[in-house]
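Hello again, I could really use a second opinion on something today. I've dropped the whole record in just underneath, so have a look.
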Amino acid sequence: MTPTRLTPLPIVLGPTGSGKSELAIHIALAIGGEIVNCDSLQVYRRFDIGTAKVPEAARRGVPHHLIDLIEPDQLFTAGDYAQQARAALTEIAARRRTPIVVGGTGFYLRALLEGLSQGPLRNQALRERLELRERKRPLSLYRILSRLDPTAALRIHANDTKKIVRALEVRLLEGRPITELFSRGRDALTGFRPIKLGLNPPRALLNQRLDARTVGIFEAGLVEEVRNLLSSGVSRDAKPFESLGYKQALQVLEGRSTLEQALHSTQLETRQYAKRQVTWFRKEPDVQWLEGFGDNLELQGQALAIVDRESAF
């Protein structure tokens, strides 16, 4: 019996600002592909400038999926992402096109490829106690998580209260770290052959690009975008406002920061975030690393050669 041929699945990963979108679009144009977003912020509608969404005109006719998917106040988990992304992969492959996953949210990628284990149900009373503590003593939950589940603490930003609350909820209800859930009961992706392409530009050059991009984001009207979002009824407690750039712009509008302070804070935290992304992806198995940025022509040729070679199996 002839085994079923797996559909090639190029995956472009790496730190923010490394040129993932440029490389993914180049690959898509060369092989007849369609892009499936793997960025946890680009799923939100109307959060455009600060999330660095690729404008429609710059997509060069390449279809993009799982962008502008939900409203800012909607709950969207890694499990939700995995379900919708897998549906998109299947639909694209059924049309004899090649799906290309691109993004820097490592947890979403892991959920897509490996599946997620079922954790305990949400305990509203416990959550409310934890959230009350955090309001009274900011960052106290992160310090607790660092003691109870240091591995999870390394993977979650200290300001990401929702993820911290969930990690503590699992730890307190199950008596074991949330990271242990990853090793049991997963439902791995089937029918596809992942081809992982990792971008690894020089750190100094990446930091320069990130600083310049942050300036560009503020000059493009990030603060005004936040002002418009608030005036349209989006709550200041909406999940996307916790992210880099948006939280600083919010502080400017609320008079808690100057524009210059917001810019420098965003630059610093963006560089730190990129470093954490590299640390995460270095642990990802079977990544073929490319030394440079995704808009480099020579690197693009190397990436296409890998995709062609791996797709032949």
